[in-house]
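Friendly challenge for the regulars: who can give me the structure tokens for this chain first? No prize, just bragging rights.
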Amino acid sequence: MRLVPAAAEHSRSIAEIYRQAFPESIALFFPRKGRERLLRLLELAFALLFSVGAQGVLVQTEDGEDAGYLLYTTSQPGRARRRLFQAAGLLGRMAFRLSPLEIGRLLVNQLLMILTVHRSKKVPRPQATILSVAVLPAYQGQGLGTLLLDHALDQLRGQSVGLNVRANNPAGRRLYAAAGFEEWGSRRDLGGRWLMLYRRP
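First reply, four minutes later:
Bragging rights claimed.
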């Protein structure tokens, strides 16, 4: 296995990993979308993240297959302003690929995430945020998540890091606890409860 930087040109591959790794989310938000239409939508969503400054890493097999990814943002100065037009264009293209029902479900979900925040302790605002981590099912349980997370945390050395993990994801919770993340709150969405985690610099 080897690690390579992730960029916008990897959005399609990242979309496929996400599709396979999170079937429950796909079934919840896009139950009637065909595979190709779904992948194109997810590809645009990940391209949008890169356009507003997300960074990341891919883990590849010896044959060059992308087996997993991790995406994160950092509050350090970036190039977001000059990418606003690109982001707006991607948002428009995504909107054309969403049904009114899908748009409504996504908006309600985001509203729930905002309104249901419960803080169990105070922590400073994280300087960096891990947005998404996924490994293809065929490669899960082989330490790739740890490899990706260790690399990202090395890149974010000296910064506090925040993330959300599903409360019913014991493997994810173990991974983050082993890396020094602590729970400081929770929130809910249409799929259930999330734990809000924080790692000190």
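The CA atoms of residues 109 and 189 lie 5 Å apart. Residues 2-199 form a domain with the Aminopeptidase fold (CATH 3.40.630.30). Your move, everyone else.
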